[in-house]
Structure formats: structure tokens, C-alpha cells
Amino acid sequence: MAASSILLVDADDAARDQIREVLTKVGYSVTTVDTEEEAFEKATDHNLVVLDVLKGGQSPADICRKIRATPALVAIPVLCISQSDEVDERIRFLEAGADDVIAQPFDARELEARVEALLLRFQRSRDLAPVLAADTSPPKRRKMVTIFSPKGGVGATTIAVNTAAAVAENPGGSVLLIDLDLQFGQVAWHLNLQPAQTVVDVSRDVSAQREPELLRTYTAHHDSGISVLAAPGSPQLAESVTGQDVERILATAVKAYDSVVVDAGSVLDARALAALEGADTVIFPVYPEMSALKALRSLLDYLNESGTISSKATFVLNNVFASDMLKMPAIEDVLGTKIVSVLPYDPFLYMKAVNVGVPIVRGAPRSIAAQHLVRLAASAFAPENGVAIHTIQPKHEERKPGRLGSLLRPGRNGRKPAN
Ligand SMILES: Nc1ncnc2c1ncn2[C@@H]1O[C@H](COP(=O)(O)OP(=O)(O)OP(=O)(O)O)[C@@H](O)[C@H]1O
Ligand SMILES: [Mg+2]
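A: This is the predicted complex of the input protein with adenosine-5'-triphosphate.
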């Protein structure tokens, strides 16, 4: 830890000397700069950025926001120094994406403790990692992101809808959101849409499963620019969709759209497995409750055996409770993996978004929740953002066909089970 290097962005001579002295005394290597240009030039070579005042009176919150919007810097924690203890100023930094804020005047021990805590949080993957190693595959554009949870009610649809809406904000690319929570899918409600056709209709049209042009005709259009392939209105209809249908639909979807987001719900059947298998990134919402964590851990072990989520799993702690009874280290220990994305609790925002049918990233874009959701979307589609994507190593060196293999790969008779 003491060898970590810190980039201190500070144009105030006295503050700079004070902070540098505190941090070098405990063994950190500190580089100081005082302009935005230098900060961006040097940030990637450091483990942490400490952001104080800038030359020319530029707003540190704006620089923080720019750092957070830069894919190559998403993995670097940012500690902002606020010039007063006012709540508004601290919130401004947090809204800009700061990982922590410390107010002037501060005690040297508090600065040390906050820096150490941030570095620990971001380095924890290397320390923990019984099942985890860094993704070393060369960067390629990720096209399909699947969200799945073995437990319902954990925010999977919220994440799926906001991921699609955040990606749709970027000009130029087409985005398809598929609701594969086939029994009780709620994507259409989250977007206030009444789709005329659903996944079931595509499952009856083999040509549409193979032809990008035809597949597009089954989607509903949302104002945000997202195309939506909705779940059927009744659980009874869901049964007719097979794992093979889903496999074909997804293979065609990535040809028809630049980005595909799949809400795979919380039932692990052949349809969900096809969505996990086909994805470039799998987002697992993490529900901070012990039985849910254990269920997720056993799912990960199950999927590991087949190598299904190797190189593509990312975990998002969704703080659905007002108080955090389980602390991050305990959660990471149960899962055996690192969590780098967190969604903050909010008593109204998420509920309102569902009730009015407007995703948070559109309805409350300046909220902290929206900022976190935008970052999550960016890192899910861009492997160069690195930290959010992990390889979960199979338990055994040799990859076995595993249970997933037997479910999804053709058997001796060349057929797969329907569901
Ligand atoms: N961080 C949060 N803070 C407060 N409420 C939240 C948070 N995340 C999600 N919620 C609320 O929790 C509920 C469940 O969210 P959501 O529908 O996205 O979960 P899900 O996993 O898709 O559920 P289901 O299994 O029913 O499909 C919603 O009412 C949502 O508004
Ligand atoms: Mg849902």
C-alpha cells in the first residue's frame, strides 16, 4: 500500500505542500500538478487522484466529472477536497462522481485514513481473488450485456433499462433492450410502453429469428431511442419460447443493433442460460442480504464449472435498504469477488422512475444514482475500463462441458432440450 502513487492536483501552494507532506510521510509517492491538461496526462500512471483547487479558478467538480466520463480513467479512485464543510459542496463533488470527499481544514490522520481506505477498496480484487483474475484478453467492442440475478426484486430491470437508456444517449448507435424475464417481465412498464408484439411472436417466426431486418419489425420504439423487444403479457405464453429460440434471437440481435441489453430475470432455465452464454458482459446485481449472497455464490460456482461467465462478470451492489447492515468486505468475502459498482439507496427516485415509466438516467440525470448507472453502462460495454470486468476462473484447470454444456449444446441426436 505504501508504494502506491498518488496524483495530487493542486494549485494552492500551501495546501499542496501540506497534503504532499502528509502522504509522503506515510510512504506514498506523490506527483503534483496544477492544471487540467497535466492531470489528464498523468492520471493513468497513478493509483489515486486527489483533487483540490486548480489554476485559473477552474471548478474541481467539473474536472472530476470529466475524469469520470473518461473511459480510461474509470478505474482510478478520485478523492476531492472541498474548501468548506458545507453539505451542498460535498454533494456537488459526489454528484460529479467523486469516490470520497474530505473538507478543509482536515486532520492529517483523516486524510491518511481516507486515502488508505480508497486504495484498499480499489485494490481489493487482487487481495481477495480466490476465483478471480484480471481480464487479459485484447480489448474488443462489447455488444451484448445481460443482467441476471438468482433472486428477484434486486434491481435487475432497473439496471437493464437504465443501461440501455444511458447507451442510447450516445449519438449514432442503435440499442435493443430485450426482456427475457419471460413470465413477469416489466421492462415495458419501466418505459411506459405498450408493445404490440413480444418475444413470443418472434419465437413463432423462425425467419425473424434469423433476419436482422425482420427482427427489427417486432420491436417497440421508445422516445429515448431504445428499441424494445418486450416480454409476453402472460406467464402462460412464456412457456412456448425455447432456449434455442433465444439463442437465435440474440445471435441476430447483435447483427441488427450496435448494442444489446438483456434483462434475463431471475429464473435459471435454458432461456436465461442462452442469454448468459451469448453476453459479452454479465451484470449481477448484488442484494445485501446473506441468503441472497449465498444463492449468488452458488450460481457463480455452478456457472464457473462450465466457464460460462469467464472474463465477463461484473457485480453491482444495489443498496435497496436504507441502512447497510452488511459491509462491503463481508459481502465480497461471501461472493469471493470484488464489487466495484454500487447503486445508492433512494427512497423515492427508483420507485418514481418505475411509476412514471421514465428511467432515472433520463428523469433525474443529475442524481447520484444516475451518475452511477451511467458509469456502470460505460464500463459494461467498454472492456478498456477494466476494473468492472473480471475473469472468474473455473475451479478446474481443464474446462469441462459442465451442466450448461449439456443443456445448451446439441446432444447425440443433435437436438437440445426445449427449455
Ligand atoms: N437502490 C435502490 N434504492 C431503493 N429502491 C430500489 C433500488 N433499486 C431498486 N429499487 C426498487 O426495487 C424494486 C425492484 O426493482 P426492479 O424491478 O428493478 O428489480 P428486479 O430484480 O427486476 O425485480 P423482479 O424480480 O420483480 O423483476 C423497484 O420498486 C425499484 O424501484
Ligand atoms: Mg425485473
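The chain is about 40% helix and 15% strand. The chain has a mean pLDDT of 84.
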